[in-house]
Amino acid sequence: MIVDRTTLFRVVVLGIITSVLIGCGLFTGQHYNDFKVDTPLPPGHVLVLGIVGGIESWDDDSRGVPKLAARLRARRLPNVHVETVENHRLKLAVTMIRRAFDRDGDGQIDAHEGESARLVLFGHSMGGAAVVALAESLEQMGIQVLMTVQVDSFGRNARWIPANVSTAANFYQSDG
Predict the structure, then answer these.
(1) How far is it, in rounded angstroms, from Cα 57 to Cα 48?
(2) Among 16, 53, 86, 133, which is most buried by a count of CB atoms within 10 Å?
(3) Ordered DSSP codes for 27-79
(4) Would you say 107 and 39 are in contact if contact means Cβ atoms under 8 Å apart?
(5) DSSP string across 9-20
(6) Could you read off the pLDDT tens digit of each residue along the chain, which spans 176 residues?
(7) CA distance to 42, 69, 135, per residue, from 131 (Å)
(8) What is the dihedral of CA 170, 162, 52, 17, to 10 degrees?
């Protein structure tokens, strides 16, 4: 079989693009069963959820958010559970949070469960913007957030913190 240069070029480019997308996790991606935290969490336990930026993978421990999450896990802090999620998977994050704090198992967060939630959200770049968007979604569900931390947050609305967040920190590099 003879293949012309144009067809060969297209096949090579398609192969490179596919490899990059698979490497970035865009085809495989994160799934709920990738979380290790047992849910629901007992009362008083804290869920710390890091949201990665850009097209970073939730489990790439060489990157900022997963690296910090790994350090927090290594400290084995009592009653603290740490997970990471990709910034384009906020529905997955909401599912994790709902299951973590739905202590009566009815699939809903009632007022007591929402008020007693102990949740910390942090993110970098697009993950920082996703932290704010997630906090807004949680506000509509009646879930309180102890703290949000955004580092080099990307996006116009990342500076407006919803009322359900008790404490917020927003860090930017001053020298790029």
Answers:
(1) 17
(2) 86
(3) TT---GGG----SSPPTT-EEEEEEE-TT--TT-TTSHHHHHHHHHHHTT-TT
(4) no
(5) HHHHHHHHHHHH
(6) 565 666 545 555 555 554 555 455 445 689 999 999 999 999 999 999 999 988 888 888 888 899 999 999 999 999 999 999 999 999 999 999 999 999 999 999 999 999 999 999 999 999 999 999 999 999 999 999 999 999 988 776 656 899 999 999 998 877 66
(7) 24, 15, 6
(8) -120
Q: Which two tokens stand for residue 91?
A: 């529905």
Using CA atoms, how far apart are residues 126 and 68, in angstroms rounded to an integer?
16
Angle between helices 126-140 and 90-101 (to 10 degrees): 50
CA dist 97 and 176 (Å) reads 33
